[in-house]
Amino acid sequence: MNYYYDNIFKAIQYIENNLMNDLNLTDIISCTGFSKYHFARIFKAISGYTINDYIRKRRMTEATRLLTNSNMRILDIAISYGYNSQEAFTRAFKEVYDVTPRYYREHKLCYDNLGQLILSEELLDAKTNSDYIEPIIVEKDSFYLVGIEYQGQNRHGEIPKLWNELDRYIDDIGSMINKDSCYGLERYMDYTEEEHAKDDWSFRYLAGVELLQCDEKSLRSIINCQQTSLEQDGKVDNKTEFLMKRKIIKIQKSKYAVFPIQSVIENVPNTIGKIYSMYLPKTGLKIKGDYDFEFYDNSFRPNEYDSYLYLYIPIED
Fold first, then answer.
1. Cβ atoms of residues 177 and 210 within 8 Å
2. What is the pLDDT at residue 194?
3. Does residue 66 lie in a domain region?
4. Which of 62, 114, 178, 284 could form a disulfide with 57 if both were Cys (CB 3.0 to 4.6 A apart)?
């Protein structure tokens, strides 16, 4: 089977074998060899579900089968699938099916449920036969990004607002940066297992630009500039405001698979999903690291069909 599908299948098999046990996300991911970031990206792109949502829906599906085909008490079913009480199970059940477990059983309902995800090489071939983008392979030396960072799930358009905020600062910090291009660096936050269970993996997104000089002396001068600006009459101008918020991240030297993405903004998430579920698996290239980034050069024009941004995914040599 394909390297990507094979590893996601291993994770699914582990989940299926442990639906009635405590599922540790670290153990699930360790079956695959992917980083947490790329596992989350690939799993959602291929399955259509976040890992937590998939587990919840699979457990609920199996619970409905017991409601329909067994005489087990509802409390016992609830406990079997990880709920501490019948009340907690009932609340979760009603959120999914809009009826209580008791009503579901008594009225012999049979709703569409989520079966085990099936993956195959034939499925990948069928998807990519009529729709495939070949990536460009490039090597990029290490570099520093400076920018402002958002942490969350972008549920209310926070990332576009982040770019608008960065745009306000660009002219005032122009001597420090390369203004001909911008980067959108995405990573996942480090969570405990308990936090993972409550949240479908919020991420970190840095809207940034490349520093023109990236030695230790240059980095110290940025910090000193911030301190000096704050000491001058207490005035907070755009440059000072940026320096107070700024985050500097070093991107290590790496080889990348680079995919062009048409700049029609509403289509970008769908294209990234195809990259991780279809185009990248089709290449057979093995990913590494725990990030990817969008690259915008000075020819980028949002929402124009002949303009492109580029998704850089780090790969093994």
1. yes
2. 52
3. yes
4. 114
Those residues whose C-beta lies under 8 Å from the C-beta of residue 148, and which sit 6 or more positions away, are: 162, 165, 166, 206, 207, 208, 242, 245, 246, 247
The whole-number pLDDT of residue 174 equals 65
Answer yes or no: do 230 and 154 share one domain: yes
Q: What is d(CA 311, CA 116) in angstroms, rounded to the nearest whole number?
A: 31
Q: How far apart are CA 202 and CA 48, in angstroms?
A: 17
Task: Determine, yes or no, domain membership for 164.
Answer: yes
pTM score, two decimals?
0.85
Going from the C-alpha of 124 to that of each of 27, 135, 177, the distances in angstroms are: 26, 17, 42
Q: Which range is least confidently modeled, 2-6, 67-71, 220-224, 299-303?
A: 220-224
Half-sphere exposure (Cβ direction) of 175: Cα atoms closer than 13 Å: 6
pLDDT confidence bin for 112, thresholds 50/70/90:
confident
Domain membership of residue 256 as a residue range: 136-315
Domain presence at residue 59: yes
Report the b/e string of 76-91 with b at 16+ CB within 10 A. Answer: ebbebbbbeebeebbe
For residue 78, the one-letter residue type is: A
C-beta separation of 209 from 179 below 8 A = yes
Please tell me which residue, 139 or 131, carries the higher pLDDT value.
Answer: 139
Give the DSSP H or E segment for 26: helix 25-30
Q: Are residues 38 and 150 in the same domain?
A: no
Which residues, 6+ apart, have CB-to-CB distance to 262 below 8 Å? Answer: 271, 305, 307, 308
Same domain as 61, residue 142: no
Contact (CB, 8 A) for 67 and 99:
no
Nearest to 210 by CA among 201, 200, 220, 218: 218
CA–CA dist 112, 116 (Å, integer): 13
What is the total count of domains within the chain? 2
Supply the CATH number for residue 161's domain: 3.20.80.10
Q: Measure CA 186 to chain center.
A: 8
Assess whether pLDDT exceeds 80 at residue 103: yes
